[in-house]
Amino acid sequence: MINKNIIDAFSEVAKQKNIDRTNLNTIMEDLFMSMILKKYGEDCDNFSVIVNMDKGEIEIYQEKTIVKEVVDPVREISSVDALQVEPDLEIGDPFVEVIDPSTFGRRIINTAKQYLSHKIRDVESKSVYENFSKRIGEIVTGSIHQIQRDRIFINCENTELILPKNEQLPVDRYKRGESVRGVIKEVDYSSRGAEIILSRSDNRFLEQLFEMEIPEIEDGIIEIKNVSRVAGDRSKIVVYSSDRRIDAVGACVGMRGSRIQSIVRELNGEKIDIINWSELPEVLISRSLSPAKPINLYIEEDRPYAVAVFEDEELAVAIGKGGQNITLASAVSGYTIDAVKKSDYETKESIYLDEVKGITKSQLDILSRNNIDTAEDFLDADEDFLLSLKGFGAKTIEKIKGNIDN
Question: Taking a C-beta distance cutoff of 8 angstroms, is the pair 224, 210 a contact?
Fold first, then answer.
């Protein structure tokens, strides 16, 4: 009877949690093996458990060896006791003893339920992890159920997702019960279960919004080449149309701005510059610097590096607030861009360090990594900083300065 009660208890919980019979059998067998370990100790590999859900049977077998005098009761049985069950057996023969599950105590059903609930949580957590780990980069929508200072908890598909503070937009304002969208950024698994991290500041969120709103991107006619963002403030996105009849920028903007406005609303007013891709560096860089328009460009493709010259009054627009525009343009174009005023450039054209004698290629690389590209940059650099660089002693620095002056 106790067998049936245990199986009924397991079946009820499993049905509620949608656990299949194969998993249930394994969980029940693991339960009894864990109870055997507790009762008989670690050295009990001579036990086996068989669960038959259809027949409502739980069978526990303990294999022993028949001996004249028992030393280890877990593995041995006396010949006197064994022969009472099977008279034909002899000393040294194996003997299989059937154990009644009720010998594990009256609380076995409650213990079984608790164990099953714990195992079900593990199964559910692994299922959640496997589900969401395949969906990294996908946008999901959920409902806010808890707001903390450093993160927000969101219910989505009966699963709790986390939107950390550093993945939110600075302009976002949240209320409990509100709907919120984000891109699945990370999925981790630990002893606490699956942890799904959402992001609204990640570049992939912007990319996925474009794909959702612009059918030509989803269909593969328009391709997103690159994205750079200062999340919540400004973004630049480079697009390309494989069909010459389709204007990539126009398709992204939509009729009267309908498509882009939908994305801007989702990002709470984030400004988005849509740039038509070009294989010509000078064209791509010029477009990337929008809304500013350079009057001249000096490009070194092998570095890659560019100096953009602007009318004096437009330099501030080119650089942007806190250097934002020039930084985004550099990131999205793939070129490090320096912006200069026309008046400064005409007064003294920059001399690049690769034009100066006495500087090796490895030294040029080190200087470039530290944003020292021109003779002016080198002369303006702090001498202690230059001395801290590998390969730059006092004599080397003086020699390079002398070559610059000459």
Answer: yes
Tokens of 239: 């697009």
pLDDT tier, 176 (very low <50, low <70, confident <90, very high otherwise): very high
Question: Could you tell me the two tokens for 159?
Answer: 């699963």
> Which strand (E) or helix (H) includes residue 302?
none
- CB-based contact 367:303 (threshold 8 Å): no
> Which burial class, exposed, middle or buried, applies to 212 when counting CB atoms under 10 A from its CB (0-12, 13-18, 19+)?
middle
Cβ-proximal residues to 355 (8 Å cutoff; 6+ apart), any chain: none
Domains and CATH numbers, the chain: 2-128 (3.30.1480.10), 135-201 (2.40.50.140), 207-277 (3.30.300.20), 278-349 (3.30.300.20), 353-405 (1.10.150)
- How far is 202 from 141, CA to CA, in rounded Å? 16
- Copy the structure tokens of residue 309: 């010259």
Residues 291-302: b if buried by 16+ CB within 10 A, e if exposed: ebebeebbbbee
CA 232/CA 197 separation, integer angstroms: 19
Percent of the chain residues past pLDDT 70, beyond the cut: 92
